[in-house]
Design brief:
Radius of gyration: 18 Å
Shape: globular
Helix content: 25-40%
Number of domains: 1
Strand content: 15-25%
């Protein structure tokens, strides 16, 4: 069964999902806000995912000793759709809009994930005490790469980022900003732009040449 909602309800549904871009996907919140059954909301999200409109990014939670978030995050795969649903028409509107940071985050994620070797699985990582990583690349059952995504040109790393790589024990850690530079910002971190981090992932055999 496909989407049977009226056009106005479907429009509201898409806008509500766009407001969750880069956030945890809470089906109950969507259900209550839209007055739709929880199962219907789940089915509609699955249809959007099958149509390649959205991506659900699952959390990595092997470490059972931590209180780890187990809900997926949701992203619009096309930044243009995200901007349209948030009435963003011009670059000047985007850079001052609250969605700017998560728009960049989703854009970077969407440039990386489709290029990955099928054996490499993408996740995010978050614990209840504040450790968080935007993108973690898993080889088998081993976290290998951590990627923190920042819109700011200055790659400031939070305590949550540093705690994450301690938890994950990733050997390769990158902070991706628009300008990059391919420079070490801390002993365990390299500051990159999108092109530079893709080259690093190729060198690690996570992306085919």
């Amino acid at each position: 069964m496909g989407i049977t909602a009226t056009i106005p309800l479907l429009n509201n549904f898409l806008r509500m999902v766009s407001h969750l871009h880069g956030s945890l996907l809470n089906y109950s919140t969507l259900s209550n806000s839209l007055g739709m059954a929880n199962n219907t909301v789940r089915r509609y999200v699955e249809i959007l995912e099958q149509a390649y409109l959205v991506r659900r990014l699952e959390p990595w939670f092997v470490n059972v000793s931590k209180r780890i978030v187990k809900s997926p995050k949701i992203y619009f795969r096309d930044s243009g759709n995200l901007h349209f649903l948030n009435n963003i028409r011009h670059y000047e509107d985007l850079i001052t809009h609250p969605v700017a940071g998560t728009s960049w985050e989703g854009y970077v994620i969407e440039q990386i994930i489709p290029l990955l070797d099928p054996a490499i699985r993408p996740h995010f990582y978050r614990t209840s005490n504040g450790a968080e990583m935007d993108l973690v690349l898993i080889d088998g059952i081993t976290p290998v790469v951590s990627i923190e995504i920042k819109l700011s040109l200055a790659p400031a790393l939070t305590r949550g980022s540093t705690e994450s790589i301690t938890d994950l024990k990733t050997e390769h850690n990158f902070v991706v900003t628009p300008n990059g530079g391919n420079v070490a910002v801390r002993p365990q971190w390299i500051h990159c732009n999108i092109r530079e981090v893709i080259e690093h992932l190729k060198a690690l055999k996570m992306i085919a040449d």
